[in-house]
Structures are given as C-alpha cells and as structure tokens.
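Supplementary Methods S3. Complex input for the S-adenosylmethionine-bound model.
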Amino acid sequence: MFWNNKRGIQVTNQRLGRLEKMTLKYALDLNKNSITLDLGGGNGYISWILTLFHHQVFYYDIKPNWRIKWLKKIFNFKKLKILKKDLKKINYSDLPKNIDLIYSARTLHYLNYENFEALLKKLESRLKKNGKIFITVTGVESEIGKKYPCAEKKIEERFCFLEKEYQERFEIKEKIFLMNFEEFQEIFKKYFILEEAWESDFKNLFFVGFKK
Ligand SMILES: C[S@@+](CC[C@H](N)C(=O)[O-])C[C@H]1O[C@@H](n2cnc3c(N)ncnc32)[C@H](O)[C@@H]1O
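Predicted complex, serialized as structure tokens:
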C-alpha cells in the first residue's frame, strides 16, 4: 500500500506473494522496452516496478488510482500508459501487439464468464511467442465464496452480488464470477500452455502460462 503525507509517498511496503515474485523475476530478465500489462492495476505497485525495469507498461483499470497517476506525473514516465478501461468491453484495438508479460491480480472475477473468456482469447492473440501470463483470482471455495449466492449455478450464469454483509466486509459491491480450481484450469488451458497453477490456503487461484 502506498500513502501520501507531507513527507511524500510510500511505495515499498506492498506485500509480494509467490505470484508477484514469479512475475517480477520473469520481468527482470526481459529486455528494456518489453511490453508488459497490468490488468486491474489498482494502486499500481506492479506497474510501478515494471516501469522501473524500463518496460513499456500498460496499466488498465476501470478507475485508475490516484497514486499511479501521481507517480507517472512527478517522474514524467512516458513509457507508463495509464488506461481507464472496463475490461468487460476491451477490444483488440485497446491492446498492444507483441506482449511479453501479462499480470492480473484480484480483478478478473469482476468479469462474467463470457467476458472473461473473451478477454483471455484477445490476450492470447496479442501475446508474443514465449510471452507469459500470470493471473490470480478469488476462488469460489474461498471465504468470499461462502456468501456467494450463485455458487451452485452453471458457470455461464454465475455472476451475482455477494450477500450484503460480505459486500461491506470485503468491499466488493459489484457482481462477481467465482470459479473453483478445475473450472479455471479448464478455461485457462483453452488459451494458454499451463506452466504452473496452485490454490492458496485461502482457496484463491493462481495460474501461470505461456502462449500456445
Ligand atoms: C481488488 S483490486 C486489485 C488491485 C491490484 N491488482 C492488487 O492486486 O492490489 C481490483 C481492481 O480491479 C479494478 N476493476 C474492477 N472491475 C474492473 C473492470 N471491469 N475493468 C477494469 N478494472 C476493473 C478495480 O478498480 C480495482 O482497482
């Protein structure tokens, strides 16, 4: 988390999990000017680090956070693009070609099944040969999934609000789409070569793959 006070902005104490470590390790070995995407970038800490690696970074968010906008402005980073986009409606023309790395954390469950799959398809087509994708989403068997009324619905129809109490507790006010590990794996493998996948103790889902 970064914060602003009279002394500046804190950018270092965001927790880096296993997926972030893998992403950044891979990113560090890429050439300068590699094309890297952060989908649903939030406060933008991954975009920020990728920018410091001299990549051409595409940060997408439906509501770009002031922190990343502020960092871009004060350092005048031309290679960091902050794109205010709804990932549900993204077009091929919104995506760069020859992408080296795609990262998305805790965001793609805001898309329904149809939009999620359509997005993976577009991403695959824009990913470079040997390009890599790193995704994590909340799983249906996680704590959040306990108050998810459409857990038993068919995957195509599974898109709904959490019960009120959990909407407040987890600050998720939108409809969401939650999957279990096998469901995610099946969709992911349609578009990418699966390199590694795991479920955390909290039943969140983590997938790493290559272009097919
Ligand atoms: C839980 S935050 C995760 C932020 C960051 N990736 C992280 O892990 O800290 C989810 C982010 O997704 C964004 N978001 C939600 N729905 C979206 C959509 N349809 N299109 C683009 N961004 C979206 C939100 O604005 C928010 O910044």
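The pocket of S-adenosylmethionine is lined by residues 40-42, 60-63, 86-88, 105-107, 110 (CB under 6 Å). The mean pLDDT is 94.
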